[in-house]
Amino acid sequence: MGIDRDGGTAHDGTRVGVGIHDADAARWTVAWTVEKYHGDVIAPAFLYETVAGEGNILLNGGISCLFQSLIGNGTATAAQTLTYFNNGNAYLGVGDSTTAAAATQTDLQASTNKTRKAMDATYPQHTDGTTSGAATITFKSTFATTDANYSWQEWGIFNGSSGGRMLNRKVTDMGSKTSVGQWVLTVTITLS
Prior knowledge:
Elements: E1 28-38, E2 47-54, E3 57-58, H1 60-70, E4 91-95, E5 114-118, E6 125-126, E7 136-143, E8 151-158, E9 166-176, E10 181-191
Antiparallel strand pairs: 1-2, 1-10, 3-9, 4-5, 4-8, 6-7, 7-10, 8-9
């Protein structure tokens, strides 16, 4: 007796494994340094330590200010929410709080030990153009012997000596400043 096996399996389809990633990924990178000088003189002979690091968090209020300025809603009026981050309005602030950074924050988290310093002459620095150098801006402030003498645990960029918007914030141990020296904080932001 013969067995008739006339069955089979057929697959009628196409399987394509293609990964398509159609997105523009922007990168916000930040490098910062604190140069520590003995006394009131900022010169190589008086530099005793440099602390450096990378990273921070971009804050919602700072992002909004950037976008509003981009579409023409910025202002040169100091300490208003949409004030430009230019030489007359930009400040670097430091404080002693170790509270974790969050995008919703609007100020340094220190309760009392926090100080904002105006930009050094010619800062912030940015070169306008269409080359890769145009993707960077640098902020720099000098904290004199009488300024911010406490443990530096956080920093941020502001568009006013008080109030206004905070662009970004970093929580990191930069050391304890005393009145025997000046510290220079430099923050460089690159978009790519």
